[in-house]
Specification:
Helix content: 25-40%
Number of domains: 2
GO molecular function: carboxypeptidase activity
Family: Belongs to the peptidase S11 family.
CATH class of the largest domain: Alpha Beta
Largest sheet: 5 strands, antiparallel
Keywords: Carboxypeptidase, Cell shape, Cell wall biogenesis/degradation, Hydrolase, Peptidoglycan synthesis, Protease, Signal
Pfam families: Peptidase_S11, SPOR
Number of strands: 17
Radius of gyration: 23 Å
Low-confidence stretches: 7-14, 16-20, 279-357
InterPro entries: Beta-lactam/transpept-like, Peptidase_S11, Peptidase_S11_N, SPOR-like_dom, SPOR-like_sf
Shape: globular
Strand order of the largest sheet: 2-1-9-8-7
Order of helices and strands: HEEHEHEHHHHHEEEEEHEEEEEHEEHE
Mean pLDDT: 78
CATH architecture of the largest domain: 3-Layer(aba) Sandwich
Strand content: 15-25%
Distance between the termini: 71 Å
């Protein structure tokens, strides 16, 4: 009888947990979730995976990605000091109580992001790497497109409420995979359980670390609008999955639901070799496989629709940025970018991210991908509503042994839409031409 009572009690408790998990997926309008095999990209579970949601502090995963990219390229080091502006210091909690005029190292900033989820540190990073919050947010969005996160838009580096800052569970799963694949040398930051700054210790908000077998990160998030969010990476028994839960009612129910998803689906993960869902390249991610993004590969045009010269920036000696203590290039002089349009018989296989839509417009061709991304961000900023529904991407081509990067916007449904966008851009002194996919 005692044994039967214990079994019944265990079943009752288990039923409550399962009921709570089911409630997350059905009765909660904010809920979205996905479990993905990180080796193959196979979706093992999904619910509202492509529905727009607020990322909250999952935003800081992309902030960290851009820090890792800068570290890997040698532009900064872990000891590089980040200045703290009055704007950064004024960010509301959670924070690490930074003050105007303070500085912290890149290493401290990353630890503050992944443990305390510090908003003041996130803004300091944004101003340091991007020159301003807005510019850094544009860089984040451009990088999201490059990684195949087609439904994500960033407006800040921390995830505090902004009605235009949206993502999806699927996009956050892609970012989770990209962080682990592209920067394994820095990924261990997400396993940090505590962080001490100015003699104060901050614990990690991710309670699954060390408590659920195989969990090695990644990030929690919460705002009133978003609900309780969590992205988890799990590696155990030769299997690897990522799982994302958005819109939990409480942190406890969110964690219980995540633990249940891991328990259910980890054993369904493959045990073979990684197929590298998001391709690697020197200096970070350069392309995303077509399977990760809806739509078709963008074919190279057979001829220019209009004869015109695109622009690219000539390299120049680095100068000091006002908000940074490291040298960054600031382009000035414009030179013609020779971007040959190959014939159908000689066109190489298209490179770069796959892209949705029927027509593409190209605004520049540059020797540096960073410059191409910056140009895309600046063009978006200048163009206003003209490019509101377009997706920025880069594509590579070679000439004379040199690799160039096309800066393009994709997603135009018709010739008139694409040509109309180009006409509007030309009025703003931005060169442009349109081609059909």
């Amino acid at each position: 009888m005692r044994l039967s009572g214990r079994i019944l009690t265990a079943l009752f408790v288990s039923g409550i947990v399962m009921l709570g998990a089911a409630e997350q997926a059905s009765a909660n309008a904010k809920y979205a979730g996905i479990v993905m095999d990180a080796k193959t990209g196979k979706v093992l579970y999904e619910s509202n995976a492509d529905a727009p949601r607020y990322p909250a502090s999952l935003t800081k995963m992309m902030t960290a990605y851009l820090i890792f990219e800068a570290l890997a390229s040698g532009r900064i080091s872990k000891d590089t000091r980040i200045p703290v502006s009055r704007n950064a210091a004024a960010e509301p909690p959670t924070n690490i109580a930074l003050r105007p005029g303070d500085s912290l190292t890149v290493d401290q900033a990353v630890r503050a992001l992944v443990t305390r989820s510090a908003n003041d540190a996130a803004t300091a990073v944004a101003e340091f790497l991007g020159g301003s919050e807005a510019k850094f947010a544009s860089m984040m969005t451009a990088k999201a497109r490059q990684l195949g996160m087609s439904r994500t838009t960033f407006k800040n580096a921390h995830g505090l409420p902004n009605s235009q800052q949206k993502t999806t569970a699927r996009d956050m799963a892609k970012l989770s995979i990209a962080l682990r694949e592209h920067y394994p040398q820095y990924y261990s930051y997400f396993q940090t359980t505590s962080f001490t700054y100015k003699k104060r210790r901050y614990g990690n908000h991710n309670r699954l670390l060390g408590r659920v077998n195989g969990v090695d990160g990644i990030k929690t998030g919460y705002t009133r609008a978003s609900g309780f969010n969590l992205a988890s990476s799990v590696q155990a028994n030769g299997r690897s999955i990522v799982a994302v839960v958005l819109g939990g009612r409480t942190s406890r129910s969110r964690d219980a639901h995540m633990a249940d998803l891991i328990k259910r689906y980890l054993n369904q993960g493959s045990t073979g070799r990684d197929r590298m869902l998001i391709a690697k390249a020197p200096g970070g991610a350069r392309t995303a496989l077509a399977a990760m993004i809806p739509g078709k590969q963008v074919p190279l045009p057979t001829e220019r629709p209009e004869a015109e010269t695109l622009t690219a920036y000539a390299p120049e000696a680095p100068v000091k940025a006002a908000a940074m203590n490291t040298a960054v290039p600031r382009p000035r002089a414009k030179v013609a970018a020779v971007d040959p349009m190959p014939t159908a018989s000689t066109a190489p296989e298209p490179q770069g991210a796959a892209s949705p839509g029927g027509w593409v417009i190209q605004v520049a061709s540059m020797p540096s991908e960073d410059e191409a991304l910056m140009f895309l961000a600046e063009t978006e900023k200048k163009a206003g509503q003209v490019l509101a529904r377009a997706v920025p991407i880069t594509e590579t081509f070679e000439k004379g042994g040199i690799t160039y990067h096309r800066a393009r916007f994709v997603g135009f449904d018709s010739k008139s839409d694409a040509w109309g966008a180009c006409a509007s851009l030309k009025k703003k002194s931005i060169s442009c031409y349109a081609v059909q996919q």
